[in-house]
Design brief:
Blueprint lengths: L1 H20 L6 H28 L6 H27 L1
Helix pairs in contact: 1-2, 1-3, 2-3
């Protein structure tokens, strides 16, 4: 599990940085779309990894499940902000 943590920790840091960048209004909607696409991709990869581990009989580590939940929550927030972009155009 430490290897997964080493891989995901920089990703979570990058995502936090991207959310901070989004605060500037200039390219907010474009950045939100890019972040949305990245989150979808990362979630797909993580879920596939969990499914592979389940097929191999490896129990779901709580940490991985929590990371997926956290990314899903972030995705939900990005979705809400993207709807605001659509409402303003």
């Amino acid at each position: 599990m430490p290897m997964v943590h080493c891989i995901l920790q920089p990703l979570q840091h990058d995502l936090r940085e991207e959310m901070n960048i989004v605060n500037s209004n200039t390219d907010k909607c474009k950045q939100l779309r890019e972040l949305h696409d990245r989150l979808i991709g990362e979630l797909r990869v993580l879920k596939e990894g969990v499914q592979d581990e389940e097929r191999e009989g490896i129990a779901n580590p709580l940490e991985m499940v929590n990371i997926i939940k956290s990314l899903q929550k972030t995705l939900s927030t990005v979705d809400i902000e993207l709807h605001k972009c659509q409402d303003t155009h």
